[in-house]
Design goal:
Layout (H helix, E strand, L loop, with lengths): L25 E6 L7 E3 L6 E2 L5 E2 L4 E3 L5 E4 L5 E4 L4 E7 L3 E14 L8 E6 L2 E5 L3 E7 L2 E6 L7 E6 L5 E5 L2 E6 L2 E2 L3 E2 L2 H15 L9 E9 L2 E9 L4 E8 L5 E10 L5 E3 L12 E9 L2 E9 L4
Parallel strand pairs: 9-10
Antiparallel strand pairs: 1-4, 1-6, 2-3, 2-5, 5-8, 6-7, 7-9, 8-9, 9-12, 10-11, 11-14, 12-13, 13-16, 14-15, 16-17, 16-18, 19-20, 20-23, 21-22, 21-24, 24-25
Length: 305
């Protein structure tokens, strides 16, 4: 069973296959569930498991099945797909992107687009066009729901029916629906939905430990009660460092790694102590220390067989 341990936790699917590097596309940074895996296809017929840091080309179709999938573009745009989503990258040229979302839900964090840039999301009955904001689109039979989570006043999302007959602008903190009868007038997003959205946003992007773009990503692979934590210090300059696990009292429990840290490397803690025995259930702190900097995340270890 898959669990998000806290609002800033990024759960990783780590695979040993090499990344695809040819062509222009989106880099997959974090895959948020191991079983079942997200798959992709370039011909619409043959589907292959998604691998870390691979690039999706124009025309790629992505099925998340029961998993979550986070995609980050080189320009900082983030796309987070929820379970049972069906997304196709219809167009990708760096300045503009068009997606088709046939099922499920997707959250988009869009950096400010340059001159002539655009991002459109098409569903079976709606078209959502954005200039730069944080928004979510969810698809159900004969219904599309669009929400704008961004807090700045200039954020906006143009929502139209598939025929372009009716268009409305959804502002920051508002939501709208596209139904067979047309586009519903925007209304405020419920407060509890906004609070949950903020937690999900943390799960996409991780945390920054100050002004520098450095973050510690800690994920969990859990299968048949066996836990394995995946650790990466993203953005740190390569150099000597240590990864240490501390117990609830703050005492060092086990050293996971000591040596040359590389921000592209993954490290693992199998939820066992230095004696090879399973760690007792409870809260632990995973800390990376390198070149005078410390990054830490808290994780929960469950009872193991």
């Amino acid at each position: 069973m898959f669990r998000i341990l806290d609002s800033a936790l990024i759960c990783l699917l780590v695979a040993q296959a090499s990344a695809l590097s040819a062509g222009k596309g989106a880099r997959v940074d974090w895959v948020l569930q191991m079983d079942p895996e997200a798959t992709y296809s370039t011909d619409g017929k043959t589907f292959t498991e998604v691998q870390p840091r691979q690039r999706f080309l124009e025309g790629t179709r992505i099925l998340t099945n029961g998993s979550r999938l986070g995609v980050r573009y080189d320009d900082g745009t983030v796309v987070r797909l929820m379970p049972h989503s069906d997304l196709t990258i219809d167009h990708e040229d760096g300045a503009s992107r068009t997606f088709s979302l046939l099922a499920g839900a997707a959250r988009f964090l869009v950096e400010k687009l340059g001159s002539g840039g655009s991002l459109d999301v098409r569903t079976p009955n709606a078209v959502c066009a954005v200039k730069g904001t944080d928004f979510e689109v969810a698809v159900e039979p004969a219904r599309t729901l669009a929400r704008v989570y961004a807090t700045h006043a200039t954020a906006g999302l143009e929502v139209a029916d598939s025929g372009g007959r009716q268009r409305l602008l959804v502002h920051a903190g508002e939501e709208s629906e596209v139904l067979p009868a047309g586009v519903i007038q925007p209304r405020p997003i419920p407060a509890e939905v906004l609070q949950q959205a903020a937690k999900r946003f943390d799960a996409i992007t991780g945390e920054y430990d100050g002004a520098a773009p450095v973050r510690l990503a800690v994920g969990l692979i859990q299968f048949n009660g066996i836990q394995r934590f995946v650790i990466r210090a993203e953005g740190l300059a390569a150099g000597p460092g240590t990864i240490t696990v501390y117990d609830a009292a703050g005492a060092p429990y086990v050293t996971v790694f000591k040596g040359g840290l590389d921000p592209e490397d993954f490290h693992y803690w199998d939820a066992h102590g230095p004696d090879g025995r399973p760690a007792a259930p409870g809260t632990y702190r995973i800390e990376v220390e390198s070149q005078g900097r410390k990054l830490a995340k808290y994780v929960m270890v469950e009872r193991q067989p």
